[in-house]
Amino acid sequence: MNLNELKHAGLKKWIEEAEALMTPDSVEVCDGSPAEYDRMIKVLLDAKLATPLKARPHSYLFRSDPSDVARVENRTYIASKSQDDAGPTNNWIDPAELKNTMTGLYKGCMKGRTMYVIPFSMGPVGSDIAKIGVEITDSAYVVVNMHIMTRVGTKVLDVLGSDGFYVPCFHSIGKPLAAGESDNGKWPCAPLEHKYISHFPETREIWSYGSGYGGNALLGKKCLALRIASVLARDEGWLAEHMLILKITNPQGAVKYMAAAFPSACGKTNLAMLIPTLPGWKVQTVGDDIAWMKPGADGRLYAINPEAGFFGVAPGTSNDSNFNAMESIKKNTIFTNCGLTEDGDIWWEQIGYGAPGKTIIDWKGNEKPAPQTDKPVKGEEIAHPNARFTAPAKQCPVIADEWEDPKGVPISAFLFGGRRPSTVPLINQSKNWVHGVFMGSITGSEITAAALDLKAGTVRRDPFAMLPFCGYHMGDYFNHWIKLGKKAEAEGNGDKLPKIFFCNWFRKNKDDKFMWPGYGENSRALAWVFDRCDGKDNCVETAIGNLPKPGSIEPPTGVSAEDMAELCKVDTEGWKKEIADVRANHYPKFGDKLPKVLYEELDAIEKRLNG
After folding, report:
1. Model confidence over 536-574: pLDDT tens digits?
2. Which helix (DSSP H) or strand (DSSP E) does residue 99 occupy?
3. What is the Cβ-side half-sphere exposure of residue 229, based on CA atoms within 13 angstroms?
4. Architecture of domain 241-308+401-610
5. Distance linking the first and last C-alpha atoms of the chain
6. Hey, which residues are catalytic here?
7. What is the pLDDT of residue 451?
């Protein structure tokens, strides 16, 4: 599409101002077509940045620069007018100062390159829950990834119309080209000290510079879908959450939808694509990473997956750990920083088999002997530990029919979870909404002896699994959840709010062995949650919440009755320590903005524990 064809005068003016600042050789407005995708791939092949994979149709491997392999949290900023609004969990810079610095970096940054304008919808195009963004970028790699991860193109501009709201997103890799120069196989990005991933909550803007990788550059992902959307959700009365969405069907054909938040390395994607071991139960995927939820006319919370693809961590993904993810990436997939086998396929650690052939090319482009096993060797990994795949969600064999329903799906339950070898039971239902917010606010994972930065046994808290992604003060974020519950109750819809649960697949026994097998067996805990949402009498009230009645969860093979009793009981002494840690080390971080009702909840649980 030609720039002059744009109907939205404000958008056209913004693009023209960016062109004047960044001085690209040309400007293209993306139409989202398959032909455009293929043309972008050709641009990347010609620049020697993409390697076709002989073993996977229409799939390509990329290798990024070693300085550009993951989100850079210490270069990610929330530039609110007041530092207090950003809160203690975000990096803050004054917005005027940050824009001045970045405008200097943007000046002439696209010389020798094409400026691509990507109109994209987060969520089904035209949905009342969806939002529109427009990303300006000089990276064809970003264009093809955004094609997969969002809904791109002319249909989005049609919905935007002549005066619709959009989130403006600047992105540049920060690597202008001299006359006749090309990337010639070298991943383009700026040095670490010039990388900025900046969010301006009051003006709803995202400015990114210097990185071409993942969430630093695909600005629909964490930047819009969580950091900016969380602010929009606060101001407009909805929820933007770091949650998977799954559809679960019981043997009688009844359906419920659940949303779940877990810190990294806690099995979130595996749960989203779970294959149940319980006979007659079925789990399907609506989303694997982010949920946007708005109250419907009937008082229930309706959720959409704002993304259109999966941006998954490759190492550790195998047919055993996540069969459905492996099926999703057989074709039409972009791989970044994986190994390349002799037969033209990708490989990574814990993929389930050793690398075929005699040699393999690692993520840095070096030829090495092919590993005979898939066990990782620290410092000698063939694939980078944060190697990724970008695959269309529609390729997932268990994608739910409703995943693109613009109305969203009604959520019956929220699950929070962390990696806790002790204290936290297998599954626990909150007593009420505020108690559930308390559970979400103290979510975290216990540090093992392998971690050097914190003492073993310390809990690294990640409230609601939103610590790196909340675009404002987390004390205010907790309060937003509480206010949403109060509003529903005031309107007579308190009973329609999702029930809130905390789960823990990672309990260990005195021999340091996992007590629960996890993976597909987690369906047994989900079945209990399903029945609790229907009010089934399958729980016992305790000091910390509603725990499963003995016998209400059928144990998996190899889990004894004694283990089940241990998994579903209150560790009184452990919880007393938990409460003390929250009171002394966690809640004080949020200062006066921490809602008083959460301290009251802390007091009430402590009183019940002391009986």
Report:
1. 999 999 999 999 999 999 999 999 999 999 999 999 999
2. helix 95-106
3. 31
4. Alpha-Beta Complex (3.90)
5. 69
6. 266
7. 42
Both structure tokens of 378:
């620290």
pLDDT at 94 (0 to 100): 98
In 3D, which of 38, 35, 41, 33 has the Cα closest to residue 153? 33
pLDDT (tens digit per residue) in 428-468: 999 999 999 999 999 999 875 544 455 667 899 999 999 99
Buried b (16+ CB within 10 A) or exposed e, 492-504: ebeebbbbbbbbb
CATH superfamily of 309-395: Phosphoenolpyruvate Carboxykinase, domain 2 (2.170.8.10)
Q: Which CATH number fits domain 3-49+71-236: 3.40.1190.10, 3.40.190.10, 3.40.449.10, 1.10.760.10?
A: 3.40.449.10
Query: Domain locations in the chain?
Result: 3-49+71-236, 241-308+401-610, 309-395
Q: What is the full DSSP assignment across 529-589?
A: HHHHHTT-S-EEEETTEEEEPTTSSPPPTT--HHHHHHHTS--HHHHHHHHHHIIIIIGGG
Token representation of residue 483: 């206010």
Q: Are 432 and 495 in contact (CB under 8 A)?
A: no
235: which 2 tokens?
A: 């101001």
Between CA 118 and CA 426 the distance in angstroms is 44
